[in-house]
């Protein structure tokens, strides 16, 4: 029978292979990618070319690329449903990035807040790649003609720039690129630091007790929650000024699916010690299956390589089509 269902919308997103994601990255973003797989035709990539805008150690980079790919599989991204690949294994990304760089203005790039932040942090290495990062990101996106790009609020500016580049290009040469919408995820939990709960949980925090990494073992997770900052009221309730408890309640709610009201009711009359124990246990249970699958993928190098290869081949085909079209429209000679 003919398939009369409307074409699924397309979604694309990428993650840099820089360090192990935190519980915050998972509950706030990655877990939403898993949930998008049925509604959208999804493309997800490990953005390793973006990682080298700051200096990387080769052996470590190699390991981090493999681990990030394995982790995407471990959290439940399914290569049967979605196209999963590593950016550097698909040549069209670098190729289209140059074409788009020639359609991106110096002034536009100078306004990017991520560039300004990173230039400040890495003042000894403000390289051309760091500046041109948004042109490469635009290529990542536009090659696959997605309708939406799920990103955190910090990446919205880059997606807006991508839209401007796409419109500019289409205006000059005819329709080549779908102009995508940023898709700011509304369902994700906003997980904060366990030590300074007014700040976002970050894997680059110097204090290890501030964040939970997806690779933390159960003892470490429990220890980190026992040490989490709370307040002196000793009541598990969600309220202004109770940033530490609010954060723990949100984490617990995101892990168990219980509403904040239900959490409040369940812990009425109980102390913070019991509550922290329960939050830690809920997190351990969320991490357990991910860590088990991750270990299995990392042990089977053959399977991981073959999944990468399949992803690279499919992504190369899809992206080549867009690259060829863009080159032809611009006046390049294809043979
Ligand atoms: N810049 C994104 C980040 O730092 C990663 C990224 C690279 C990306 N290419 C992308 C995100 C394409 C969405 C779409 O988080």
Description:
With about 325 residues, the protein is mainly alpha-helical. It has 13 helices and five strands. The strands form two sheets. A three-stranded parallel beta sheet has the order 1-2-3. A two-stranded parallel ribbon has the order 4-5. It is globular, with a radius of gyration of 22 Å. The chain starts with 8 loop residues before the first strand and ends in a 5-residue tail after the last helix. The mean pLDDT is about 95.
Query: What is the number of beta strands?
Result: 5
> Which strand order spans the largest sheet, edge to edge or round the barrel?
1-2-3
Report the sheet with the most strands, covering strand number, pairing sense and barrel closure. 3 strands, parallel
**End-to-end Cα distance:** 39 Å
Q: Report the uncertain regions.
A: none
Structural class given helices, strands, pairing? mainly alpha
**Order of SSEs:** EHEHHEHHHHEHEHHHHH
Helix content: 40-55%
Q: What ligands can be seen in this structure?
A: tryptophan
Report the principal-axis shape.
globular
Mean pLDDT rating: 95
Number of helices: 13
**Whole-angstrom Rg:** 22 Å
Strand content: 5-15%
Strand-helix topology:
Blueprint: E1 9-15, H1 23-36, E2 40-46, H2 48-51, H3 58-74, E3 83-86, H4 92-101, H5 106-110, H6 113-121, H7 128-142, E4 148-151, H8 156-173, E5 181-184, H9 218-226, H10 243-256, H11 260-266, H12 272-299, H13 301-330
Parallel strand pairs: 1-2, 2-3, 4-5
Helix pairs in contact: 3-12, 4-7, 4-13, 7-8, 9-12, 10-12
The chain binds tryptophan.
